[in-house]
Amino acid sequence: MITRFWAEIATALVTLVFGLVIVNGALEFGVGWDSSGPQPGAFPFYIGGLVALASVGTLVVTAAGRIAGSAGLDELFLDRERGLRVLSFLLPLLAFVVLSATLGMYVATILYLVFTMRFQGRYGWPGTLATALGTAAFFYLALEKFFQISLLKGPLEPLLGL
Fold first, then answer.
1. pTM for the complete prediction?
2. Model confidence over 83-120: pLDDT tens digits?
3. In 3-state terms, what secondary structure has residue 29?
4. Nearest 5°: CA angle at 18, between 99 and 98?
């Protein structure tokens, strides 16, 4: 079981690291001004700095609340039942990412939508298949054909001539 205090601390630490990684990456591109204006890393540098600063603020406020004995920080944030619900959402998303990289975006989209609609949402097969195939077709037509943005392709797309 996770209390709100530990959830806030963990989130603040994760976002702090995220902000510092952005700041570090932005430094590689330059964060100052040159003859044409701001260098490419200027905007990410300041945004990463704001994220890191906000994270430090969250750490300070949360720690101060704990020292002051704020009752809200001892509330239950995540128990077994809620954790299982989060995992039921997170694991299919992780599978989608892995399938996108291995089978391509279109196949992964179809499989993800079929799984979530049919087995989690308990929709019927006709609506599930129509939505999954329609979404993949829409992505293909809108992104590949209209906007000419190529998505990840796997081994099946060349067989279909896509």
1. 0.65
2. 899 999 999 999 999 999 999 999 999 999 999 999 99
3. coil
4. 5
